[in-house]
Amino acid sequence: MKRRGLLLGLCLAALLPLSGCWNSKDIQNMDYATAIGLDYVDGKYITYVQFLNFSNVGRNETVQIGKEVPIWVGRGEGATVSQSMSSIYATSQMHIFWGHVKTIVCSESLLKKGVEEAYNSINRFGEIRYNIYIFGTKEKFTDLFIQKSIFNLSPLDTIMFSPEQIYAQRSFIMPLTGNQVIAQLTEPGEPAMLPSISIVRDVWKEDKRSRPMLKIDGAYFFQGKKMQTWMAEEELAGSRWTQKQLKRSLISVPAGDHPYATLVLINPHYHVDARVKDGKARFDLSLQLDATLDDLNREVSVEELERLTEAAVREDIMDSFRKGLAKQVDVLKLEETLYRNHPKQWHLLHDKQEFLLDRDSINSITVKVHLRNTGKYKGRIR
């Protein structure tokens, strides 16, 4: 009996220090912020925060495809970004957890004011990571943040949170993370670009009901740390070929309503030679691409397809260059090469003029396309 009493006393003594984790929170009793929208109106910062509950944030085998996913959006305002975000706490009912934020979206109004103050404020908060996606938008946040994916899947399955999935199939405007955008903004020779996201309402239907979906529809460009202009996706068609990260992008040749063929271009090898001649910046561009045949509408040889594709890519690049030139934007990032390789000359030119490019800046464009695969159907190929 004495031994039993001694053992019982030891067990009770061991349990006494375990008073519980008073500061811990049950995961189901927290509000999970997944996206932040930043606006600037009448001298105040307006913050929109998208919230999902734990069952929508966590991935598990019991998720029911097609079941409506509830989305909550909180709105705060204040003289600073921190004040506007903190004002949401007063009515949140539960503890807000920011560690699941995957996207920040900025309004045009905020971009015109400048993003540095907002970005510094958000990234001083320890729960929010540096490598989250960042977009600009012309849409209302109350519309943008309630968009679901196909089959009523969670917003986490939309292009706003997983743009890399779409980029792997259709490489056009490369999604960027916050740290990449800030690196561009602070680098003298590199033009800063911020992808823009919009709502497309006329493509998808669920039965007979129209279902809006998200799309990356263009990009904002910056002069210093303030937004300079916006360019649509179509205007930036040529810049996609200069992206080393390009996975897969289609082109029809020749351009127009009756193309001979459609090809998929991959594996770009892009190089720019920069120099200064007679006080002007001049550039020679060279590009190599592999191609696979996706569609063929008339009989044509492999050599002819390659020649037509090279001409179409060259024209794409020149067209985007001219459209950027009209808006004083270096869409091909030519100045970056001059800055990297000839920094002294770059600074000397910028002492005289703010924008270095003109219609004669591109001296030559050399494009080489290698058609590696004509598909399993060999008809009409000579």
TrEMBL record:
Domain Spore germination GerAC-like C-terminal residues, every copy: 218-375
Protein name: Ger(X)C family spore germination protein
PANTHER family on file: SPORE GERMINATION PROTEIN B3
Signal peptide feature range: 1-24
Transmembrane portions of the chain: none
Record membrane topology: Lipid-anchor
Intracellular or extracellular location(s): Membrane
